[in-house]
């Protein structure tokens, strides 16, 4: 009878059995060892304890390295076991490891693994030549071998016990999460934590942009997602205006105005940002258009324009003084 392609050797039995429901999150540490075909000894390839966070895997989500889920589902909580896996089950390991190293390996440790001159982003020709950009992983791609994984199961969180990250979510979950993020951002804004609010709004915008990648521009679905972005872009711009990041404000309010050219909030906030970075003509145009669309803003806009013109006179006077000093 042939040997099984995965063999398990218990190192530490753990504390208790755990149920692995579909969509549960398993959190674990792993160490990968490559079998030296000459000596039969195992040499360390990767160790998640050197990463910035433990590994996480969602049960039932068809993780690229399927054998990890198979192994983990045999384990107790806090168990440590070695899994000896035949090479035909781990041919994708180099690409999985590249992704993990790029995401979670600290800078200096990452550099020590990489090819000389390797950068995070490379052209297609370089990718074909180097494969992963890591010498040991490229060698493993060229000469596949059996691997040993030492896995320590740290924690299992059942569905509903954890907040899903964006990459885990299905499209409908991602869309539902946008409204919740907006409410969370609004709460942070009301508490005066504008930086936290901006990060939350940015996360919500990012999720909508991920969903937009799946839709054809101009369709009902695409237009709906674009409309959902508008208040988030405005809220994000307000946070950045308060934190003095004026070019961010100009960029994101301009996105709004491409879709809604008469959006008064976008015009006024962009006008403020243009004034702050001394684009006086652009600021004046935005302020005046905002006031023409919303007469209730006329007094506020008048004050902004007065400040703008006062600054202009002061700058002109300063320039004249500098010019006189040249002669």
Automatic annotation (TrEMBL):
The keyword Nucleotide-binding does not apply. TPR repeats lie at residues 264-297. Pfam families: PPIase_AIP, TPR_2. The lineage of its organism: Eukaryota, Metazoa, Ecdysozoa, Arthropoda, Crustacea. GO terms for cellular component: cytoplasm. This is AIP/AIPL N-terminal FKBP-type PPIase domain-containing protein. Keywords: Cytoplasm, Repeat, TPR repeat. It is found in: Cytoplasm. One of its GO terms (molecular function) is peptidyl-prolyl cis-trans isomerase activity. The keyword Cytoplasm applies.
